Amino acid sequence: MTLTGKRVLLIVAGGIAAYKSLDLIRRLRDEGASVRCLMTEGAKRFITPLAAASLSGQPVSDDLFSPHDDSGMAHINLSRQSDLILVAPATADLLAKMAHGLADDLASTTLLAADKTILVAPSMNLKMWSHPATQENVAKLKARGVLQIGPGAGDLACGEVGDGRMAEVMDIVAAVKAFFARPGALAGKKALVTSGPTYEPIDPVRFIGNRSSGKQGHAIAAALAALGAEVTLVSGPVSLPDPEGVKVVKIETAREMEEACLAALPAEIAVCAAAVADWRAAAVAPEKLKKKTGAEPPSLSLTQNPDILTGLGALGAKRPKLLVGFAAETEKLVEHAKAKLASKGCDLIVANDVSAGTGTFGGDANRVWLVEKNKVTEWPPLSKTEVAARLAQAIAERLS
Fold it and tell me: Where in the chain is the domain with CATH 3.40.50.10300?
């Protein structure tokens, strides 16, 4: 979907990530949105109102007591004249003001007087983000219905590395599009999504696993929920937070995942994005296997794990109406995906390149090919959030 006709009030707070807001304005307008900007005094230390006005094509509001701005009622009118309020970056200070109802400038007063949904994109130092005060403030805002995207982990402006980085611009655009799409065409539909790796134990300490982070599967679950679906996410061991509005079932092994998937049926949609281990140890040692100096390493006998995707495709009347599989390949992507489409009995295969150097496993970006019986669609390199949003839209179109 596009954002044509949608009115976004963008509130820019005083953090270094404010420079990204200029690109955000341009990207939102490229999608057809009308963008009106409100800047705090701190934001003007990083970017100028002239730059924001030039890119948005509208005047920038920055003064609560301006005699030239809406007859002194800017904090009321800015909210009433928008369809969504987007705060990017949302600093620790502004989040605290929102949580405690403070109103000492135009931004905080507008947010307190808002009658529209608010979406925040936090950005700050990792210690500020993890501080109990900030986490309590975020929890309060979520309980009041404030939506949130990010923050992500990565290099921060302060030189440290960790959580606190503002979500990428295109991920924020995808979140805005998801907001306007909901409840959308998937309202009332049940969806099953698998995500992450499985861990197959060898002994009480060691296991067979893989490098899947679960980022793509979790993003798909969130995107389907944003379109109104009732989503059950069956997740292997990951370090990601649970997506908002999604039922999460946490498992470790492939057999546990299979059991949880069958328990989540019936469902109209199933997306198998997990990287399920193909094999497991035929027998799990009851005690930790010991290394003995000079001795040969123990041999490991493997047995095959259940093929969850094939199993779902063979359920007959209980089969999900739309079954989507993933093909993580290192070569001949489309060729292998077509073969998997035929052998697994599914409707769509999302093929992605996980070869060395792509950074797909554990990274934030993905490049995929959507493979159907008589059609292959190549998507450009996208963030995993945007891949998820596109896939959710494709699923909605095929079920309509």
Answer: 184-399
> Which residue type, as a one-letter code, is found at position 351?
A
Please name every residue paired with 87 in a beta bridge, in sequence order, or none if there are none.
11, 120
pTM score, two decimals?
0.64
The Cβ of residue 173 has, within 10 Å, a number of other Cβ atoms equal to: 24
pLDDT band at 183 (very low <50, low <70, confident <90, very high): low
**Where do you find CATH 3.40.50.1950 in the chain?**
7-181
Q: What is the pLDDT of residues 311-355, one digit of tens each?
A: 999 999 899 999 999 987 778 888 888 999 989 999 999 998 877
Q: What is the CATH number of domain 7-181?
A: 3.40.50.1950
Q: What superfamily would CATH give domain 184-399?
A: CoaB-like (3.40.50.10300)
Residue 360's pLDDT band, with cuts at 50, 70 and 90, is: low
* Residues noted as catalytic: 158
pLDDT tens sequence across 41-63: 999 999 999 999 999 999 999 88
Query: Taking 80 as the threshold, does the pLDDT of residue 365 lie above it?
Result: no
Pairing type for strands 161-165 and 152-155 reads antiparallel
**Structural tokens at position 127:** 């210690």
Residue 72, pLDDT score = 52
Please give the pLDDT value at position 333.
Answer: 84
**pLDDT for res 166:** 93
